[in-house]
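Checklist before submission:
- one chain only
- standard amino acids only
- sequence pasted in full

Submission:
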Amino acid sequence: MTKKKRDHHKEILLKSPGDIAVMRDANRIVAEILQQVASAVAPGISTAALDRLAEEQTKIKGARPAFKGYHGFPGTLCVSINEQVVHGIPSHDVLLADGDIVSIDFGVHYKGFYGDAAITVPVGLVEKPRQHLIEVTREALEKGIAQAVPGNRIVDISRAIQTHVEQHGYSVVRQFVGHGIGTSLHEGPEVPNFVRGTSAMRLLAGMVLAIEPMVNMGTYDVIICDDGWTVVTADKMPSAHFEHSVAITENGPFILSEAS
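Returned file contents:
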């Protein structure tokens, strides 16, 4: 789940190897359930049905949903379709349609730690421009993760993401950013996907970051809907979102939210 950009800074808590091992277990649960949800995506399915699947599987795995009840959010998943950027609320009345793209953000709490990841999935047959947006956003995440090494700075992650996105004529959302994660869903530091105003803080082994580019086909400007949660692009153009929770180690970035 994304963090709205703030001016204040939360404490940055370094994780021990034992902490990271538990976070790997939490994030593996996230990754496996996201795979199940992605497999269920099809024209005609409701976003509430996807949410129910995720919640059932979370309980089976002995975890609890991280987002449900968080500041009043009603769902286990954030399900955001087409021009919805993040924080879409699952609904029985919203059915996926052929040609949609759907961003699914999901987290769990497990043995005292949080896991958090997001994917964007095509629904049925998707037009090439939307498929390209998905691919570029996924690549931007990969390029940001590659910079998550001790001695680099947060701005190196931000620059890698922004540069790749803008080379393809897209824009990165400014109002919502990535974040640290651990015993709290949102810890310091903030991890913006753009350079201006980004921290030059050095990255240290033991940091765990939720890196999550939100990429819009058009303008980076967004609007928060009347429900207080759903974020949409100001120009109604499509948006894509990918996220991994990543531990910074002496051996390089360790992606915690992979299934295998």
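Reviewer check: The CA atoms of residues 14 and 206 lie 5 Å apart.
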